[in-house]
Write a structure and sequence with these properties.
The chain has about 900 residues and is of the alpha/beta class. Among the domains are: about 90 residues, ATP-grasp fold, B domain (D-amino Acid Aminotransferase, Chain A, domain 1); about 130 residues, Glucose Oxidase, domain 1; about 300 residues, TIM Barrel. Helices cover about 45% and strands about 15% of the residues. The strands form seven sheets. Strands 14-24-23-16-17-18-19-15 form an eight-stranded mixed beta sheet. An eight-stranded parallel barrel has the order 26-27-28-29-30-31-32-33, surrounded by six helices. A hairpin with a 4-residue loop joins β20 and β21. α6 runs antiparallel to α7 and α13 crosses α20. The longest helix has 25 residues. The protein is elongated and about 105 Å long. The two termini are about 30 Å apart.
Length: about 900
């Protein structure tokens, strides 16, 4: 094997090996075999009943997508594996008398439910359908399988509009006066096959292929191409799945769940994916193929009912589920088919679960001895914790219940009813909150599901497309609300009692109970927030059980994390709340927020002052107010560090609006009654007006241009710290100079600050140790960090401004103007204001941290931009060696959890 080849890709003597039999792989080869192929191989290795088959690797897919052609050896490798499969099964693909049929299914490394292509029953043709009927002894089954193949192949491979097949199927049921497809007889299905073939000919411009090998080859190519469909790319962006992974293709011998009442198909979970509770969870559908379950087109029965339907298969399935959960040490999501009493396993994977289930399951598995605490910490994440902190419906409120469905994905969602994805997107972009209501969703609804606050369907269960995708996205979802009649053409739903809900009416859905309400239901705080606030403790009921699980995992995260977590807080109230949420100090106190409201006029007078005495009068007025603010803040955070940033407003925030003032002056002049004060003010505003205030007179520049401004603030800080010390308190204060671009700026302000602190010490007789540092928020500051560290005791990276100045973006403008296009085109995977740009902004942070500590080894390093509470960014800050992150109070638990996960060396499975 040459050194430049991927070590995870096996190579034959002729080159790369592109096809693996199910007996050759294992669960650790997901990069190569995809999740489905790797797990089919693992189940085969475990001796479970898996239909024989083989997997075409992701490398083959990537080669095809890069070049537009399949790798040269692929056809021969597929032929060799197909020959081996035919020998094993004792029949040939599509032979007339006793045909071997196969499925061709996608299988990427990370689960992408419904986003890519699957084709079942490949090998059926006008000739072989009779052989299948004879072999099975069931004409209806054979023709049902054939119509399914043409329908699925026509839609996914040939690009025929799927509604044309659905409309023809509905017409056939209407003509027969039946409501479900299982009531159609063989003769009806035979006519439907003829109709379907005509649709293919008319829409695709070619006949449905009768050669089984051509069917298989075209289906394989279609699966490759489905990796780059719009819906697949959108899903990957939503789930932050890399676009360069490609998908594997699984070719599996068919087993049939549509052979009558002793056959069926289902999906099972080893634990409830919505709550995490142990038990029998899943859906089963008699006389059906697998796609019927996940599509939600027929309502299933609970998996527990299988015990009465087929006791032998049920018992075997329960045993296999226990085997798989013990082997994978996690919740497993299983697809299975029963063919005339014979159980077959078609897929397993580590199952998607809700946020609450993730925390419960992690602690349950620790208690069962399957995983340790370090692994449990890797099984949850900050995004899930944030979901648990959202409000829930007030159970005591007066409500009008419309109906009830299956609680598929928890949460409390309120919005206007919409009945198609286009409307959901359109209204959402106009600022409306919407609930997407469908009979059932399909992959084409993904855009609308993303735009909606929640999803409601009248069909399907916990394993339907809507439920699985909603859980993966953390969206509230209620499925299978059968009593609600959804009419997408009339754009309304009808509830029992004749209550009609038109599009635009407000509805509320509770994904924890499955209840659907008319109107807006009030919300109350989450029990997890009440726990962090100290108002709730672990007990016996369901909410307390969740709180207990969160408590255990948070306690472990706090024990192992290296990064400390501080809060961005500007007043005592926010500081106290942050402390209850676990903050270990304040990383950013924005003093400009202290000058809003009635104090704004004082700052305006200070900035516009023409004479020294005017400026000094304004400063004298502000000093006691500032001191009182700091006394309250230092008391609230006593014993913990408080980083106070000196005034850093863009100038326009404290000046009168130039347009408004100009109009006022013009009106006064037109009345021949000019206001001298307004005239003077307008002249001053014109003098100070800036085209780009974010890059103008602010931060350290303001402190250097307006004499006494920063020294007033430093004096207020020092006097407040002295007063707190005299009251036997323990103030730990750090003064931060903002927007420094050169060490000379910092040196001047530092010298003035030290002089003021010395004066306060002398006046009060209190020894003060106030650290002086700076905010690194300009590229030049990051590039000259070694020099700046000579005058700074700490750096705090202001990644909001650093992102703006590195990218040349104005955050106030660009997110609304072109970020959506950048995200859709894949230029961004995520907004650089949401998650730190590691290659650009992150590189400056890394280099500045290294350079600063080279000058001053004891330099304290933190970050106080919004990235401080972003899960992915927290891992980066841990990696580059920062001492703390600072974020808004509500995000503190998330940052604590992610700091623990970053520090943990567990190699737990990726539960994307």
């Amino acid at each position: 094997m040459s050194e430049n080849k991927d070590p995870h890709v096996a190579h034959t003597s002729e080159g790369v090996k592109f096809v693996y039999d199910f007996t050759e792989g294992n669960k650790d080869l997901k990069d190569l075999l995809g999740g489905k192929g790797a797990n089919l191989a693992e189940m085969t290795n475990l001796g479970l009943p898996v239909p024989p088959g083989f997997t075409i690797t992701t490398e083959a897919c990537k080669t095809y997508l890069d070049s537009g052609e399949e790798p040269a050896p692929l056809r021969d490798e597929v032929s060799a594996h197909l020959d081996a499969l035919e020998r094993k099964m004792g029949k040939k693909l599509g032979q007339a008398d006793d045909p071997l049929l196969v499925s061709v299914r996608s299988g990427a490394k990370f689960s992408m439910p419904g986003m890519m292509d699957t084709v079942l029953n490949i090998g059926l043709s006008d000739k072989s359908v009779s052989g299948l009927a004879k072999q099975s002894g069931d004409d209806r089954f054979a023709w049902d399988s054939y119509r399914r193949l043409i329908q699925m192949f026509g839609k996914t491979v040939l690009g025929v509009d799927g509604d044309l097949f659905e409309d023809a199927l509905e017409a056939a049921k209407k003509a027969k006066k039946v409501t479900v497809d299982t009531d159609l007889e063989a003769a009806d299905l035979k006519k439907l096959v003829t109709k379907f073939k005509k649709i293919v000919k008319a829409e695709a411009g070619r006949d449905f292929p009768q050669d089984p090998r051509e069917q298989m080859d075209l289906a394989i190519r279609s699966v490759f191409e489905s990796w780059n469909t719009d819906r697949a790319k959108l899903y990957r962006r939503q789930e932050r799945i890399p676009h360069d992974l490609g998908t594997a293709v699984n070719v599996c011998s068919m087993v049939f769940g549509n052979l009558g009442p002793d056959s069926g198909t289902g999906v099972a979970f080893t634990r409830d994916p919505a709550s995490g509770h142990q038990g029998v969870y899943g859906d089963y559908l008699q006389n059906a193929q697998g796609e019927d379950v996940v599509a939600g087109i027929r309502n299933t029965v609970p998996l527990a009912d299988l015990e009465q339907i087929d006791k032998k298969s049920y018992d075997q399935l329960m045993q296999i589920m226990e085997t798989l959960e013990t082997h994978y040490k996690d919740l497993c999501d299983i697809e299975f088919t029963i063919e005339r009493g014979q159980l077959w396993m078609l897929q397993t994977r580590v199952g998607k679960r809700t946020a609450g289930a993730a925390f419960r399951i992690a602690t349950q598995l620790v208690d069962q001895g399957l995983i340790d605490e370090a692994e449990a910490l890797q099984r949850v994440n900050g995004a899930q914790l944030a979901q648990l902190m959202f409000p829930r419906f007030d159970e005591g409120a007066k409500v009008k219940q419309l109906g009830r469905g299956i609680a598929a994905s928890p949460g409390a969602a309120v919005g206007k009813a919409v009945f198609d994805s286009y409307t959901a997107i359109k209204w959402s972009r106009s600022g409306e909150k919407v609930i997407l209501i469908r009979r059932e969703t399909n992959p084409d609804d993904l855009d609308g599901m993303i735009a909606a606050e929640g999803i409601l369907t009248s069909r399907g269960g916990k394993t339907s497309h809507a439920a699985v995708v909603a859980r993966g996205m953390g969206k509230t979802c209620v499925c299978g609300a059968e009593e609600l009649e959804v009419d997408t053409k009339r754009r309304c739903l009808t509830a029992p009692g004749g209550v009609v809900v038109e599009e635009g009416a407000t509805v509320s859905i509770d994904g924890s109970t499955g209840k659907v309400y008319l109107g807006e239901v009030p919300v109350v705080p989450s029990p997890v927030v009440e726990y962090f606030e100290g108002r709730m403790h672990a007990g016996a009921d369901d909410a307390d059980e969740l709180v207990a699980a969160v408590h255990r995992i948070m306690a472990y995260a706090d024990r192992v994390r290296r990064l400390r977590v501080r809060a961005n807080a500007d007043n005592a109230e926010d500081a106290l709340r942050a402390r209850r949420f676990g903050a270990q100090g304040i990383g950013l106190c924005r003093t400009e927020h202290m000058f809003l409201g009635e104090r704004r006029e004082m700052v305006e007078r200070l900035i516009l002052a023409d004479a020294d005495d005017e400026r000094e009068d304004a400063l004298k007025e502000l000093l006691p107010l500032q001191k009182r603010d700091f006394v309250e803040l230092f008391e609230a955070m006593d014993g913990l560090p408080v980083t106070v940033r000196l005034l850093d407003p863009p100038l326009h925030e404290f000046l009168p609006d130039i347009t408004e003032l100009s109009v006022r002056v013009a009106l006064a002049e037109s009345r021949k009654d000019p206001n001298e004060n307004d005239l003077r003010l307008l002249q001053a505003v014109h003098r100070l007006h800036e085209q780009n205030p974010m890059l103008g007179l602010r931060g350290v520049r303001l402190g250097l241009v307006i004499p006494g401004l920063f020294t007033m603030q430093v004096r207020a800080i020092a006097e407040a710290a002295a007063e707190r010390k005299n009251a036997k308190g323990d103030p730990r204060v750090e003064i931060m100079i903002p927007l420094v671009g050169t060490v000379q700026e910092l040196e001047i302000v530092r010298e003035e600050a030290e002089q003021v602190i010395a004066e306060v010490q002398e006046t009060t007789g209190v020894e003060l140790k106030l650290a002086l540092g700076t905010m690194i928020e300009l590229p030049r500051a990051a590039l000259t960090a070694d020099q700046i560290a000579e005058a700074a005791e700490f750096f705090s990276f202001g990644t909001n401004d650093l992102t703006q100045t590195v990218w040349g973006f104005s955050r106030d403008d660009v997110e609304a103007s072109f970020f959506t296009a950048y995200l859709e085109k894949g230029i961004f995977g995520v907004s650089p204001f949401e998650t730190i740009d590691k290659d650009g902004v992150g590189r400056l942070v890394r280099d500045a941290a290294r350079a600063g500590r080279a000058t001053r080894p004891d330099l304290k390093l933190g970050v106080c931009g919004e990235h401080g509470g972003d899960p992915e960014s927290v891992h980066f800050f841990h990696e580059v060696g920062l001492d703390y992150v600072s974020c808004s109070p509500f995000r503190i638990p998330v940052a604590r959890l992610e700091a623990g996960r970053a520090a943990s060396h567990s190699t737990g499975s990726d539960h994307r």
